[in-house]
């Protein structure tokens, strides 16, 4: 049995700092340059209602804020906001935007265990991503009923990762909190199953930093345990409230400066802003989140 990673405490107080976040002492003061932060993208789930009401107007507004890339969702359904995915990407390009990644569900039903082969609908979603030059296809979620079937699920993702490689795209997995709280049949965390049981040369990970923090872990430890595995990340802050809801970058408890100074160890290449709760409107929220991100020290 592989050794499981022990539960850690991520946040100690509302005044948490980078030194308090890490469980072992870290010295970020030497050998680290302050660099201009990369341009962040946006997960479209953050503004889904605006897009449903006025797709073209919302895309134009996001471009006007300075966003240059957007992350889609529902790729396997073949449509985004009433448009085919190809039509939607054409709209993005017309506004100077690209889509480097999109979320796409893969379930147990998408895999034929007898044939050890991915189903046709799952193959089609990957083929569409390749045809539309979307580099990353990202698994965003595991249905509650399937979380106890992790040993079977990793076979689905392995098959999807193999097929994606042949199609010329890359599979990645996006976490929530349950991967860091629920365990498989051998007591390993679900995130450990995903990191350890799928060929690391075929799958990357999109670390949702908020959900890691929400689960009372520090991203820094996971960087050290699995360096280079986290090619993308979702960036949203954690509120200092009893609900611990999402807030705009810079308005919460997470020390992103300390985390992103270790971005090379993590492997981060794409930084994707997301917002699930709103103090204002979604569009105002993602604008403020972007502004907060650009104030970070890289």
Number of DSSP helical runs: 12
* CATH homologous superfamily designation: Divalent-metal-dependent TIM barrel enzymes
Q: Structural class of the secondary elements?
A: alpha/beta
The helix content, as a percent range, equals 25-40%
How would you describe this structure to a colleague?
This protein has one domain: Divalent-metal-dependent TIM barrel enzymes (TIM Barrel), CATH 3.20.20. It is globular and about 50 Å long. Helices cover 35% and strands 16% of the residues. The strands form 4 sheets. An 8-stranded parallel beta barrel has the order 1-2-5-8-9-10-11-14. Strands 3-4 form a two-stranded antiparallel ribbon. It has 298 residues and is of the alpha/beta class. The N terminus is likely disordered.
Structural features:
298 residues; alpha/beta; TIM Barrel; eight-stranded parallel barrel; two-stranded antiparallel ribbon; 16% strand; disordered N terminus
């Amino acid at each position: 049995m592989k050794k499981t990673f022990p539960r850690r405490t991520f946040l100690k107080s509302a005044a948490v700092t980078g030194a308090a976040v890490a469980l072992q002492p870290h010295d970020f003061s030497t050998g680290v340059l302050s660099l201009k932060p990369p341009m962040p993208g946006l997960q479209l789930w953050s503004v889904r209602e605006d897009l449903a009401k006025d797709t073209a107007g919302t895309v134009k507004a996001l471009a006007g804020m300075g966003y240059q890339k957007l992350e889609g969702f529902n790729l396997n359904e073949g449509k985004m906001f009433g448009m085919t995915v190809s039509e939607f990407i054409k709209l993005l390009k017309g506004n100077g935007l690209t889509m480097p990644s999109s979320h796409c569900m893969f379930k147990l039903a998408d895999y034929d265990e007898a044939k050890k082969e991915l189903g046709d609908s799952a193959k089609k979603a990957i083929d569409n991503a390749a045809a539309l030059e979307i580099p990353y296809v990202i698994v965003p979620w595991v249905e509650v009923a399937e979380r106890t079937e992790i040993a079977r699920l990793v076979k689905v993702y392995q098959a999807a990762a193999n097929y994606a490689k042949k199609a010329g795209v890359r599979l990645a997995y996006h976490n929530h909190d349950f991967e860091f709280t629920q365990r498989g049949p051998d007591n390993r965390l679900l995130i450990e199953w995903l990191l350890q049981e799928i060929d690391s040369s075929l799958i990357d990970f999109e670390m949702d930093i908020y959900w890691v923090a929400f689960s009372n872990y520090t991203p820094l430890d996971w960087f050290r345990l699995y360096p280079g595995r986290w090619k993308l990340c979702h960036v949203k802050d954690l509120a200092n409230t009893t609900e611990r809801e999402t807030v705009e970058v810079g308005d919460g408890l997470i020390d992103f400066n300390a985390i992103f100074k270790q971005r090379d160890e993590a492997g981060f290449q794409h930084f994707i802003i997301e917002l699930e709760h709103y103090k204002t409107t979604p569009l105002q929220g993602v604008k403020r989140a972007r502004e907060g991100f650009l104030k970070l020290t890289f």
